[in-house]
Amino acid sequence: MADIKYALFIGCLIPYRELGYEISARRVAKQLGIEFVRMDDANCCGLPIDPVNHEMATAMAARNLSIAEEMGLNIITLCNGCFATLKKTNEKLKKERELREKVNDYLKDVGRDFKGNIEVKHFIEVLAEDVGIERLSELITNPFDDLRVAEHYGCHFLRPHKYLDTENPESPTVLTKLIEITGATVVDYIDESECCGGTVIGIDYNVPLNLARNKLKNIKSVGADVMVTICPQCHMVYDLNQPRIEKTFSESYDLPVLHYPQLIGLAMGIPPEELALNELRVKAEKILSHLVKKVEAKH
Amino acid sequence: MASVLRVLKNLAVEEGHIPELFKDLGATILKTGFAYQIPSVRNKKREEAGLPPLPQTKIDEIKKLADKTGLIKIVQGDE
Questions:
Q1: Within an 8 Å CB–CB cutoff, is residue A106 touching chain B?
Q2: What is the ipTM metric for this complex?
Q3: Which positions in chain B touch A50 (Cβ < 8 Å)?
Q4: Is A50 on the interface with B (CB under 8 A)?
Q5: Cα→Cα distances A56→A23, A153, A204, B15, Å
Q6: How would you write the pLDDT of chain A (299 residues) with one tens digit per residue?
Q7: Residue A31 is part of a domain; what is its CATH number?
Q8: Does B69 sit within 8 Å of A106, measured CB to CB?
């Protein structure tokens, strides 16, 4: 199995609200031989404070980057927001000398220094690039053969494209490929690239509420069985808040929202209880019944 | 466009227009290094799930950065 080692930047939101994402990602990583090393002294990525004070946000991101540099490891993130903030800051500090000098002046006061010798990757990039789509597809032992999945990339995995350089934000493919190797069918739906609205949840709750309602409606209208996300913020909006959306608009969706590692973990034969499916607010009975039928058919 | 909006938001904060939410968030960062204070019940759950303990930020470093960049002044006001 692959020998892949990264400094795991866990961020704030996952420990606060989305433990199921961390549990399932760690379990899949273990199966694939991806080692996560704890960043002992890390802080918030800086994104939440960016609207208030960009310099502090940049300094916080740079401090995290300097910690990983000291560890001699590239950073892996599970959160789109942390990914975008750390990668954008890393790229900017590498390219913009004046900014680097200014930030290093801040860091000097706390005995640190940004050198610019590491990279930042999202978990699904590591799966697709370091492990490889072909190798991953060889590890699928329980493929889904009748599961319709609606994918949601989330804004901060793709934008700002100038710095993240992941894929064309208008037609990304990596998550699609990662879902398809599980045997599931990816369904298209209207306004796929619409933001979840989570970043303004504390300012005006109605914005994410309405955006999420529209997305859930669009997804249900094309007959998807589940939705898949790669970001704790997006997941919170669609899963944790789904009952509130249903109550507010007197509608019913009953759409399970899986973290990607939960989907591929099930297809790799990892038991559901080891992938924290019980942490989901909207229960994923349908996806589990697919698996049970498959196991029963095998015996 | 996002960068323009961010600059405008930062300018508004400099003028004293800051939603309470962001003041609270800044205060939590100054206290813990993170945007959210993790409740003890969550840490217990981590332990039960076999997850490693969360990072412990050297908070004096965060405070020094916040002082230099002006975050402390924003969070605490001119008191």
A1: yes
A2: 0.93
A3: 6
A4: yes
A5: 31, 28, 24, 17
A6: 558 999 999 999 999 999 999 999 999 999 999 999 999 999 999 999 999 999 999 999 999 999 999 999 999 999 999 999 999 999 999 999 999 999 999 999 999 999 999 999 999 999 999 999 999 999 999 999 889 999 999 999 988 888 887 788 888 999 999 999 999 999 999 999 999 988 888 788 889 899 999 999 999 999 999 999 999 999 999 999 999 999 999 999 999 999 999 999 999 999 999 999 999 999 998 777 776 666 566 65
A7: 1.20.1050.140
A8: yes
Closest B-chain CA to A39: B55
CA dist A176 to A4, A153, A180, A188, A294, Å? 23, 9, 6, 10, 23
The number of folded domains in chain B is 1
Tell whether pTM > 0.80.
Answer: yes
Q: Of A122, A152, A186, which one is at a domain's C-terminal end? A: A122
* Residue of chain B minimizing CA distance to A50: B6
Label residue B41 exposed, middle or buried (CB < 10 Å: 0-12, 13-18, 19+). exposed
Which A residues, 145 through 184, put their C-beta within 8 Å of a C-beta on chain B? 159-160
**How close is the nearest chain A Cα to the Cα of B30, in Å?**
10
Domain annotation covers residue B30: yes
How many structural domains comprise chain A?
2
The alpha carbon of A163 is separated from its chain's Cα centroid by a whole number of angstroms, namely 18
Residue A272: which domain range?
141-298
- A111 and A170 co-located in one domain: no
- Looking at residue A170, what DSSP letter applies? T
* Long-range contacts, B15-19 (Cβ 8 Å, 24+): B18/A52, B18/B74, B19/A202, B19/A203
Give me the domain span that covers residue B41.
Answer: 19-76
Q: Does B49 touch chain A (CB under 8 A)?
A: yes
Say which of B38, B46, B68 has its CB closest to residue A106: B68
Does A243 sit behind a cis peptide bond, omega within 30 degrees of 0 on the bond before it? no
Q: How far does B40 lie from chain A, in Å, by closest CA?
A: 10
Question: Closest by alpha carbon to A34, among A66, A64, A68, A73?
Answer: A73
